[in-house]
Write a structure and sequence with these properties.
alpha/beta, Rossmann fold, 2 domains, six-stranded mixed sheet, three-stranded antiparallel sheet, 9 strands, globular, binds adenosine-5'-triphosphate
Length: 250
């Protein structure tokens, strides 16, 4: 069903040669178990920073993130297999085949090879990668590589999935197809994974999120929007929501 995420008054500052940069200021929101929340905003508004804190690779300067009574950055290894992330660059290992890359997380969790193969094959089938198990990343298109990255995350059956501009560098046709597949994946499951999806693309944020958080640089959340069901199939209403976000970012 996924675990809920509580982000409580989180501020993150970085020290630089010129002083201090505030990447995010008092981010405060909850993501319910199984909810899909998108965070949208222009470059430099703190999207990757908050994602890294939830993933547990960065600590906040003040405030805290609590998942299941634990803080990911204090207890990183206890979240192994529970939080998975997909990034803009696919981060596949070039010397591993597509199936070996996709099974990497399971391998780290000590899942036996037969079981790994079975689970990867199931996901490859769902994501249209069947037949490419033995291909190397450099033999695959950008969209296919990103599907391998998604498989690597999904195959561990995580409680929380974090996506950082995951479809951002793909051409529009491939990105649209991946978004549609991604939506049918998250809507198809009986127990939804709690998902945080960050993007600078307003249409993508509205299409994917149950709820959209809007952030402006320097990192401050300036709007929170509940997305009505089926919004992306209603161009007029979609336009209204898009305009609201654009206006708040001006
Ligand atoms: N390690 C760091 N050291 C210094 N400043 C940093 C560091 N990481 C991020 N920042 C600064 O914090 C701010 C927010 O960065 P962040 O990467 O979170 O933004 P973003 O919204 O993800 O941007 P983009 O869409 O370009 O990826 C920026 O001003 C950035 O320069």
């Amino acid at each position: 069903m996924g675990l809920p995420i509580a982000v409580e008054e989180v501020t993150k500052e970085f020290r630089t040669d010129d002083g201090t940069v505030t990447a995010i200021e008092e981010f405060d929101f909850d993501i319910e178990a199984g909810e899909v929340v998108t965070l949208v905003g222009p470059t430099g508004c703190g999207k990757s920073t908050i994602l890294s804190i939830i993933l547990g690779v960065l600590s906040p300067t003040s405030g805290e993130v609590v998942v299941d009574g634990r803080r990911p950055y204090d207890d990183f290894y206890s979240f192994r297999g529970e939080i998975a992330a997909v990034f803009q660059e696919d981060r596949l290992l070039p010397w591993r085949t597509a199936a070996e890359n996709a099974g990497f997380g399971l391998e780290a969790l000590g899942v036996p090879e037969d079981e790994r193969r079975r689970r990867v094959e199931e996901w490859f089938d769902t994501l249209g990668l069947s037949g490419y198990e033995n291909a190397y990343p450099q033999e695959l298109s950008g969209g296919m590589r990103q599907r391998v990255g998604l498989t690597r995350a999904y195959v561990t059956d995580p409680e929380i999935l974090l996506l950082d501009e995951a479809f951002g560098h793909l051409d529009e046709v491939t990105a649209t197809k991946l978004r549609e597949d991604f939506l049918s994946l998250i809507d198809g499951g009986e127990g939804r994974t709690t998902t945080m999806f960050i993007t600078h693309d307003i249409d993508e944020a509205l299409m994917i999120g149950d709820r959209v958080l809007v952030s402006r640089s320097p990192g401050k959340i300036i709007d929170r929007i509940d997305v009505p069901e089926g919004l992306h199939e209603d161009p007029e209403r979609h336009h209204e929501y898009r305009t609201r976000i654009l206006d708040s970012l001006r």
